[in-house]
Design brief:
- The complex is a heterodimer of chains A (379) and B (273).
- Chain A is α/β, with parallel strands linked by helices and 379 residues long.
- Chain A contains ten helices and eight strands.
- In chain A, helix 5 (146-159) links the parallel strand 3 and strand 4 (166-169).
- The longest helix of chain A has 31 residues, at 2-32.
- Chain B has two domains: 40-134 and 236-272, D-Maltodextrin-Binding Protein, domain 2 (3-Layer(aba) Sandwich); 137-228, D-Maltodextrin-Binding Protein, domain 2 (3-Layer(aba) Sandwich).
- Chain B is built from nine helices and 15 strands.
- Chain B is globular and about 85 Å long.
- The chains are: A alpha/beta (379), B alpha/beta (273).
């Protein structure tokens, strides 16, 4: 009996000891271990230093998953000397179900951009599946769902009030590709713009609404793939668009023409923007500015529209200079595109300033020198 | 405790797994047992023709002859020589550059030979041959600079020298990388490779860093400079076939090795570059 009792006491004592150890470990875990600090922080408020406040660039952070890469991209934009960024915010990404929004990713992009001292211009588009017929294109939106897009614009502007002051409504609506593979129609687009404009102003009267940039194209009347941008813009005015946008977004690609190549109705070059300006003036909209939200040159060695690398650098810097010197109606010039999250493996990669691995291309270095007031070597 | 019966069951299960693994492996490896047979080479030989895709806008590798309208160039000659060694005719299919891979996958041709640079990002789509030409950056000096201990024979000799590069090019990028290692290196930018090469010839710079194609063409047409040392960077031109066409790839590789060893590739380069 004595031995049994002693064994029982020993067992109990061991259990108590083990229990106390578990308790101590649990207490350490609960109170002693701090949650890990976030790996990426916004960091201190920074400012862009540049000789040309109209310098911008189109970033492609929409599909960039890792936050440190978002931050690094925007740091490099600031270090290059461009105070403006244009970024794409796809409706379908943030409103997967009607009325349910997830702003976590765009919050990251916008907050990091602002912390780097950059002004964000948000392009809105990309129709979620619930707002279009099955198997339709991402750019298809029928008139019955314009109010759904209006709701999204309201939600976006409301959420980013005070953080995003510029929103671009749609992209290149004069191309069938960007209009759900339907015949393009400036009056229809104006109807969409009217709803988006009203909802944006309802959410924030201070927000600036940009009419979607038109694709520079010489497509003849009735062409199935698109409509001449100058005709399309006039069509928008005819439909009453003057009342429903504050700024005109424009795409200005130079293809193989130098930056100072004079504009002509039968030519797509950088200064074609001046012809859009003429349409605006003709329609009494000369008080409104234009913002170049895409454009530039490409130096792919095999692409028929490519130029030599030195030409791309010279023309790009020339475009920034032209906007600052001669285009008092132009708010900013944002060439396409700063960096892709992964290589496109096509001529598109030769539009970029920085590789996916953040390796600056020579154009980055030269634009940076320009922004710092230094002329690049050999110019 | 593990009983004898349990041991026997475990041994049987293990045996079954091993047998199944061997069977599956054999079936995969042996087409006649149900695996997929690679008939790519047989298909080409039975058809008697190797269809080669290219974008005829990249002289001197491929371009349309203004007089005859025929496609000619280094890659065309290479394709015909490959066909000869495989015992088949060659059909050249002109196709847009950005659609070459898609057209290959869609079966519009059997191979792409179009100044195509090896791209590790595409290796899940296509299979590449060994390289038949390296278009990477090369170091170029004046032809009449004597070869002594002061001469530039490799990038390491650039310390304290002036190097010409094409602004914005890979040579420009490489030059800036070199400058980090060789602090006394001075870079001088020029708009185009020919400007760099003329500057080398005229003694404006001690050396130039340009792509191998520009260097070879300049030597052939204007002269006065020569390439020294191994390429500073690689830009490997390769043949691409569909990923599953391993038998065809093996035959192309064997032919390319032969062409390298018997001097055919060098002769083609000398002819066109």
């Amino acid at each position: 009996m004595g031995e049994d009792k002693a064994r029982e006491i020993m067992v109990t004592a061991r259990r108590v000891w083990v229990g106390m150890q578990v308790l101590v470990i649990a207490l350490i875990l609960v109170f002693g271990v701090r949650p890990p600090r976030p790996l990426v922080t916004l960091g201190p408020q920074r400012h862009v230093e540049t000789i040309n406040p109209k310098m911008g660039v189109h970033t492609r952070l929409t599909d960039e998953v890792e936050e440190w890469k978002i931050k690094r991209t925007l740091e490099m934009v600031r270090e290059m000397g461009a105070p403006w960024i244009v970024e794409y915010f796809p409706w379908a990404y943030y409103e997967g179900e009607k009325g349910i929004y997830d702003w976590s990713h765009p919050d990251q992009v916008v907050d990091h951009a602002r912390r780097q001292g950059l002004t964000v211009v948000a392009r809105l588009g990309y129709v979620p599946e619930w707002a279009r017929p099955e198997d339709s294109a991402f750019s298809y939106l029928d008139a019955a769902h314009y109010t759904d897009f209006g709701d999204f614009v309201y939600a976006f502007v409301d959420h980013f009030r005070g953080r995003v002051q510029y929103v671009v409504i749609w992209n290149e609506p004069n191309l069938a590709l960007e209009w759900g593979f339907q015949p393009v129609n400036p009056a229809e687009y104006t109807a969409l713009l009217r709803i988006a404009y009203a909802r944006a102003k309802e959410a924030d009267p201070q927000v600036q609404v940009l009419a979607g940039a038109l694709a520079p194209t010489l497509a003849p009347k009735g062409h199935p793939e698109g409509m001449n941008d100058l005709d399309y813009l006039q069509g928008m005015y005819d439909a009453g668009a003057a009342d429903v946008f504050d700024i005109l977004a424009a795409h200005a690609y130079g293809w193989r023409f130098p930056v100072d190549d004079p504009p002509a109705a039968d030519k797509v070059n950088f200064r074609r923007v001046e012809l859009l300006r003429q349409v605006m003036v003709r329609n009494g909209d000369d008080h409104k500015p234009i913002m170049v939200t895409e454009g530039g040159w490409n130096d792919h060695p095999r692409w028929t529209k490519g130029v030599r690398p030195y030409q791309r650098i010279a023309y790009t810097i020339g475009a920034y200079e032209l906007a600052a010197r001669d285009w008092d109606w132009c708010l900013a010039v944002a060439p396409y595109a700063f960096r892709f999250p992964r290589p496109a493996r096509s001529y598109q990669d030769y539009f970029t300033f920085v590789t996916p691995e953040f390796k600056p291309k020579p154009i980055y270095r030269e634009v940076q020198r320009y922004a710092r007031g230094e002329r690049g070597e050999g110019w | 405790m593990v009983t004898g019966r349990t041991m026997r069951r475990r041994a049987m299960a293990l045996l079954l797994v091993v047998a199944l693994t061997i069977t599956m492996g054999t079936m995969t490896a042996c087409p006649w047992l149900g695996g997929k047979e690679d008939r790519s080479l047989v298909r080409v030989r039975q058809a008697g023709v190797l269809r080669v895709g290219l974008d005829a806008s990249y002289p001197p590798f491929e371009e349309i002859d203004g007089a005859t309208g025929e496609i000619r160039g280094f890659d065309v000659d290479l394709a015909r020589e490959l066909g000869r060694r495989l015992g088949v005719e060659v059909e050249i299919v002109n196709s847009g550059w950005d659609g070459l891979y898609d057209a290959l996958e869609a079966g519009r041709f059997d191979a792409v030979i179009s100044g195509l640079v090896y791209d590790p990002w595409q290796t899940d789509r296509v299979a590449y041959s060994i390289s038949y030409f390296n278009a990477g950056q090369v170091l170029v000096v004046r032809e009449d600079v004597r070869e002594d201990e002061e001469a530039i024979a490799q990038v390491g000799d650039l310390k304290g020298r002036t190097l010409g590069v094409e602004v914005g090019s890979e040579g420009d990028v490489q030059g800036h990388e070199l400058r980090k290692r060789l602090r006394d290196l001075t870079l001088r930018p020029y708009p185009a490779p020919t400007d760099v090469l003329r500057a080398v010839r005229q003694g404006e710079v001690d050396a130039g860093l340009v792509d191998a194609i520009s260097a070879r063409q300049f030597i052939r047409t204007e002269g006065g400079v020569r390439i020294v040392g191994p390429p500073v960077s690689d830009e490997l031109y390769v043949v691409a076939v569909r990923l599953e066409d391993q038998a065809l790839l093996k035959a192309i590789n064997a032919a390319l090795v032969e062409m390298r060893d018997d001097g055919t590739l060098s002769r083609l380069a000398d002819k066109w570059l």
